[in-house]
Amino acid sequence: MWSDTDSKKDFLNYSEASEIVVNVLKTPSMLPISIGVFGSWGTGKSTILNLIEDTIQAETNNDFIIIKFDAWLYQGFDDARASLLEVITLEIAKLVQDNESLFKKTKKISKRINKLRLFGLFTEGAALAAGVPMFGMASKAIEAVGNGFNGQANEEDAEAVNKFIESGQEGTKDFLNEEALSAPKEIAALKTELEELLTEFNKKIIVFVDNLDRCLPKQTIQTLESLRLFLFMKNTAFVIAADEDMVRHAVKEHFNGIDEKHVTDYLDKLIQFPVKVPKISTREVRAYLFLLYASIHPTYGQQQEKLENLREGLEKNLCLSWKEDPITVNDALELLDSDAPTVQNLLTDFGVADRIAPLLASSKNVEGNPRIVKRMLNVISMRNMVASARQMPIDLKLIAKMALFERCCDSKAVSTLYNEINATADGKPEIFEKLELSKEDFEQFEKLLPSEWEKYKWFIFDWINLEPTLSNRDLRPLVYLSKETVPLRVISKGLSEPASQAFNLLLRTNKVSSRAALQAISIIPDGEEMKVMGLILDELRKNSNWADKPNGYAGAFLLAKEREETRPQFKAFFSEVMPTSKPWFKTSVKDEEWFNN
Hints:
Layout: H1 15-25, E1 33-38, H2 45-59, E2 64-70, H3 80-95, H4 100-118, H5 125-129, H6 137-150, H7 155-166, H8 172-176, H9 183-201, E3 204-210, H10 217-226, E4 236-242, H11 244-254, H12 260-270, E5 273-276, H13 282-295, H14 304-319, H15 329-337, H16 345-362, H17 370-389, H18 396-408, H19 411-422, H20 430-437, H21 442-448, H22 457-464, H23 476-481, H24 497-508, H25 515-522, H26 529-540, H27 553-562, H28 567-577, H29 583-589, H30 593-596
Parallel strand pairs: 1-4, 1-5, 2-3, 3-4
């Protein structure tokens, strides 16, 4: 299982995007600046912020101070503008405690922020913090000051403020009687004090603003508006991580439905340098899955050096994707540990990753979203654990395939899927066989679809062709497991004619002494033997009773014996489907040194 937390490691080749931001931040002439890291929910915005932070800290010799602000954390408790200003000031105060001059400046700024809270520019949060009760005369006074800021004050408001001050309640005179109250003067004074502090501090300040897209429109706009105070101050930078569509919605909502052009103009003034989270391709998803599976492996999950070696190797391959083929499963395993027997336990997982990756990257409801991918894998893992506990003879790939359907279709389509299964006595609905036979004829395929599936016809066309097939299988266990959900697909490249002939013959082979099988193996072109083995094992996986040797085993055994590259697949498969070896299997492999080492 995987936790739903932000990663501090680059699992998706995001370092290219983070390096762009770092280069901008390290260029003095670019400051002050506001940078937007834009991407939808779960795509890795926070991870990119983590990568930026790590690079800045490693490369800049403490020239930068990084301050983090979670906009969502303060929603409903305080004004966003005041919260952001105060977080920045307090973080600087922690760093300058030994410098009396700078520390006094931070205290003065904090006091100014609290005054602005009371002044109506911000909320009554400062009054509460100072112990001023927000009822009776206090409440009227705050409202009156707010009216003054908004230009709506009258004689009654002035009287309310004076009575409140004269009442002598603890904390009130510090807030309302220290200086004449004037919104423009207070804001100008705050700006001047901040500039003086930053100049004397002589450090570059980078503020990370995260979770802005989780905020309500008012909170979002207040946070963006507070940036204006800093956009003309030297040595400052803001990096805002957000879903651009959500921010645009907040702007429209706040400004009463202004048109798209004005929304764009508004954002362009506040976000000067937008950076999009890179779109994730099949190769990135595949690499991500490899790393996820390796990270929870009982051995390698605890060996950070080997995990980092795998991560670096995958990242290098992704960076060269414009000229190099995707890394093979065996090469990925060798990056971890080519000699250790335990590495073979990952072979099945990496094989699943090969099958999952293409549809996870292309499905409109997933699009490679790292958070969705992780959640889908968690569902698959939970269902597989339930299946194991109930001793259900169900293929992990089938669990994944059905879960993907649930993720990518609506409840009506999913209900139809399971109703088709439940309507049969043996759990083998005919519709799947008909759809699979129509995979070469889309028009015929479309006619066969239930009405609830029509709007998902292109997805279902791809989905039905994923391995493993659904026809002639008892799918009732999948209905039982469908109390939660998630994905799968094979990278299906056709076999060459010799490899295809060998596959068909090996699948029918019943004797390990078969000369025809050995001849077929000898003509399989180099590079296709693992694909042939994978297809044979996929057919063997349909077997639910291992008490007797199934058809196809002899072909798989001979292929593993004759072609060394396929042995890890063979060993991993039978370790998975037959944790306790049956007598016939023990007899078959007892003299095979390659299997028992």
